[in-house]
Amino acid sequence: AQSVTQLDSHVSVSEGTPVLLRCNYSSSYSPSLFWYVQHPNKGLQLLLKYTSAATLVKGINGFEAEFKKSETSFHLTKPSAHMSDAAEYFCVVTYDYNFGNEKLTFGTGTRLTIIP
Amino acid sequence: NAGVMQNPRHLVRRRGQEARLRCSPMKGHSHVYWYRQLPEEGLKFMVYLQKENIIDESGMPKERFSAEFPKEGPSILRIQQVVRGDSAAYFCASSPLGLADNEQFFGPGTRLTVL
Predict the structure, then answer these.
(1) What pLDDT digit, counting tens, does each position of B74-103 carry?
(2) Which of residues 37-96 of B touch A (CB under 8 A)?
(3) Helical (H) or strand (E) element with A10
């Protein structure tokens, strides 16, 4: 079975300070991991993905995440928060056990608030 | 290349009515997924379809819900005899033929409200 745990339901940071959104995963197989962002009343947009290549993954809008197998973690970071980063962030896991596109398993989300 | 299209964006139904949600995948994408997002929760997988085939419906409620992806036309998620608990945002995603690490492209969602 696969699952993800997002350790914080809400995170607030001041504009210009670092962002850390935490995610731990559980998967019986080698996972593929993603971070998606959802702005209010909008669909989801892929920020970045890990698929067993480099463990440090760079995404859009200055975000990056590091896959740490020993810690089963895939935390999302950004050096300097911008007001436009305020949104809901979802950590997502899947794995290719059947050589086809597989369903995504979502975490419960972390709401990021940016303080001016 | 237009993204994933969903319509309607907002749908209001009374208890007992039927809801039909439509999803047109991105051009060239033959895989469609439906997810449901309840208020204050993450998305939950419902069903995975390819053209004319249901591949995985393990997340679909056993009754009142059905999905199809015909050879021609959009994918349809159908909810019969809606109840208040069906109120949620329903998202469709599509991806090209490939492996599990393919990005799924999401539509803007349909927000269903059951009165």
Answers:
(1) 999 999 999 999 999 999 999 886 455 567
(2) 41-45, 48, 55-56, 58-59, 91, 93, 95
(3) strand A10-14
